[in-house]
Automatic annotation (TrEMBL):
Residues covered by region (Disordered): 251-271
Organism of origin: Streptomyces typhae
GO molecular function: metalloendopeptidase activity
Top-level taxon of origin: Bacteria
Alphabetical list of Pfam families matching this protein: Peptidase_M23
Source lineage: Bacteria, Bacillati, Actinomycetota, Actinomycetes, Kitasatosporales
Domain M23ase beta-sheet core: 155-225
Alphabetized SUPFAM superfamilies for the sequence: Duplicated hybrid motif
Protein known as: Peptidoglycan DD-metalloendopeptidase family protein
PANTHER family cross-referenced by the UniProt entry: MUREIN HYDROLASE ACTIVATOR ENVC (PTHR21666:SF270), PEPTIDASE-RELATED (PTHR21666)
């Protein structure tokens, strides 16, 4: 979820949700000594802002569980205020500014109101797809006062009791070698452009940004980890080539990265 200033609630919710289910104890593991940061390409292109960044706090999401120690959330900012389309007019990145937090109204917005929704997710290196799922729905946003209360007191607890896939939503996991795996969470339903076993190349579109799982608004949750299983893996530090690790609320621009290899035809066939 992208609202880092509400994360003070997260340990309480996690303690309630995870403490009620002993079988999920693996989600509460303590991180071991950190590995050196692994440099990879950025998983997005265009103008984005970082939230819940490991540049400011480790563990970045308040927990080592689900290998989130060095995870980062990024949201597409779209057009500057007064430029391009009005908020909510388009799903494509850059077609409208990102809607702000609503204290009273609207309680929820459709995913397409956010410029992140539908943005392409790119392979961060030469890799093999070891997990790919896109059957869970994209829900309405939770970026209002009432929406957040529902998220923290009801939805977050329920998802915390469920398998890890209900927390991360639709997801893709890439094996990038050297016991390092890249995980993309909250993927858009029906947007997969790859299958398990596919070999992918840097810059290749593998899926699109959505709002599935434990998410307050469409955004990209990205992390590196030392195994493909979220319940047992531990987080691995990352750096994006040419960008580094953006700090909380830092806006950055990821330049386009041309994919290598004959991938476009295969992507079209899978859509």
């Amino acid at each position: 979820m992208p609202y880092d200033y509400w994360l003070g609630w997260l340990p309480f919710v996690a303690a309630v949700a995870l403490g009620l289910l002993p079988g999920k104890a693996a989600r509460q593991q303590i991180a071991t000594a950190p590995r050196a940061a692994v440099e990879v390409e950025a998983p997005v292109t265009g103008r984005w802002s970082a939230l819940n960044s490991p540049a400011d706090k480790v563990p970045s999401h308040g927990t080592h569980g689900l290998a989130q120690t060095y995870a980062i959330d990024v949201t597409a900012e779209g057009a500057e205020p007064g430029e391009g389309a009005e908020p909510g007019e388009g799903a494509e990145p850059g077609k409208g500014a990102r809607p702000g937090f609503a204290w009273l109204w609207p309680i929820a917005r459709r995913p397409r109101a956010f410029p992140s929704f539908g943005a392409p997710l790119l392979a961060v290196g030469e890799a093999t797809v070891v997990h790919a799922e896109d059957g869970q729905r994209d829900h309405f946003s939770r970026n209002s006062l009432l929406g957040l209360l529902y998220f923290f007191l009801v939805e977050g607890t329920v998802r915390g009791l469920a398998p890890a896939r209900r927390v991360v939503g639709n997801s893709v996991v890439l094996d990038i070698g050297d016991e390092t795996y890249a995980m993309y969470a909250h993927v858009k339903r029906g947007s997969l452009a790859v299958r398990v076993g596919d070999r992918v190349h840097p810059g290749q579109v593998i899926a699109h940004c959505g709002n599935s799982g434990n998410s307050t608004e469409p955004h990209v949750h990205f992390q590196l980890m030392d195994g493909p299983d979220l319940d047992t893996a531990k987080g691995v530090p990352f750096r994006w080539r040419g960008i580094g690790v953006p700090a909380n609320r830092e806006t950055f621009t990821a330049p386009p990265l041309e994919a290598t290899g004959p991938v476009e035809a295969a992507q079209e066939q899978r859509r």
